[in-house]
Design a protein that fits this description.
This protein is of the alpha/beta class and 348 residues long. The chain folds into 2 domains: 219 residues, Alpha-Beta Complex (Spore Coat Polysaccharide Biosynthesis Protein SpsA, Chain A), CATH 3.90.550.10; 120 residues. It has 12 helices and 11 strands. The strands form 2 sheets. Strands 1, 2, 3, 4, 5, 6, 7, 8 and 9 form a 9-stranded mixed sheet that branches. Strand 2, helix 2 and strand 3 form a beta-alpha-beta unit. Helix 6 runs parallel beside helix 7 and helix 8 packs antiparallel against helix 9. The longest helix has 22 residues.
């Protein structure tokens, strides 16, 4: 049994694929298998995969019809034989020590999930950065220890919602029937937080081992169209998952802050032709939260800072500010969140 199965979904990334594969085959942890799922590529990606497979027998190629990122990852997961599973997107790359460090940490504490930080490579400017929202928000007191979601409840939803900077124990995933949703955008959000909520033991390193390529033409994250509406489905399914694990009462406050902040981010991103419809959907969610909750304690600053500041910067009409002020005026705002809201919502 390999120590780690590395799953790489591949779709039309011939320009970046070699850099990705080089970073994986040169890992200092040698006992790995590399499962490349060719998701119906129409460019030279398949040829590149076959060339690398001849050089490295650890590479296994699965070719299928295009079905999307979630389905490709699920196919890879079904073939995986490793003790732990990791995911690398085929237009990104990783530090050569990533899987050795994460695996050693995972085995030391017998964790379900082990995480690392990320850095961002801007494809347009050629610059590297480590934005706040890509960094682990977990208190340094937990560094070198393991913990559960309940122990980091105030910052749990601030963890980067991508699957790629983590490794997952295979037995944990199977026991909890955890896999990616298919035929939907933002599948990472549902998978990642479902895993974190179900996990008994989590630990991390702050090393930015994963490099996330941003502003690549054709990337899913660059789509500003109707698929942005999938975030409503994902957030609804996430609430159902939290309820399934019997943790909604505990997580309700932080989940609603996360939900509203996520909707604001996507409202900011979506094309102007869809903003009115998207805003109407936000109002429906706003009314639903208000009906279900007479009190809500908000004591988070990171989600508010990212979601609201980013979203508000794109709001042009006073009616939007009125709704947001009304939403937060109903709830108890404490700590740094109160200061952030005051600054943001008092802007004209």
């Amino acid at each position: 049994m390999p120590k780690v199965s590395v799953i790489v979904p591949v779709y039309n990334v011939e320009e970046y694929l070699e850099e990705c594969l080089d970073s994986i085959i040169n890992q200092t942890l040698k006992d790995i298998e590399i499962i490349c799922v060719n998701d119906g590529s129409t460019d030279g990606s398949k040829t590149i995969l076959e060339t690398y497979q001849k050089k490295d027998p650890r590479i296994k190629i699965i070719t299928k019809e295009n079905g999307g990122l979630g389905m490709a990852r699920n196919v890879g997961m079904k073939e995986a034989q490793g003790d732990y599973l990791g995911f690398v997107d085929s237009d990104d790359w990783i530090d050569v020590k990533m899987f050795e460090v994460l695996y050693d940490l995972a085995k030391k504490f017998d964790t379900d999930i082990t995480l690392c930080n990320l850095q961002v490579f801007n494809q347009v400017t050629g610059l590297f950065s480590q934005p706040e929202w890509f960094q682990l928000p977990i208190n340094s007191n937990y560094e070198g220890l393991c913990f559960s979601w309940e122990e980091i409840i105030e910052v749990g939803f601030e963890i980067f919602p991508g699957s790629v900077n983590k490794i997952y124990k295979q037995d944990f995933l199977l026991k909890n029937s955890l896999e990616f949703p298919t035929n939907i955008y933002y599948e990472d959000v549902l998978f990642t937080f479902s895993c974190l909520i179900a996990a008994r033991k989590i630990n991390f390193t702050r090393n930015p081992f994963y490099t996330y390529r941003y502003f690549r033409a054709g990337a899913i994250t660059m789509d500003k169209g109707k698929k942005q509406f999938d975030i409503f489905i994902v957030l609804e399914q996430l609430q159902i998952t939290i309820e399934k694990y019997g943790k909604f009462g505990l997580l309700k406050d932080v989940f609603y802050v996360f939900k509203f902040s996520q909707l604001m981010v996507h409202f900011a991103d979506i094309h102007k032709n869809h903003k009115r419809e998207f805003w109407s959907r936000i109002l429906i969610e706003y009314d639903k939260i208000n009906r279900e909750n007479k009190s809500l304690v908000i004591n988070q600053n990171h989600q508010l800072k990212i979601g609201l500041k980013y979203g508000l910067s794109f709001l042009k009409g006073y009616k939007y500010f009125k709704i947001i002020k009304s939403f937060f005026s109903r709830y108890i705002i404490v700590g740094k969140s109160k200061t952030i809201l005051k600054k943001l919502l008092n802007k004209k």
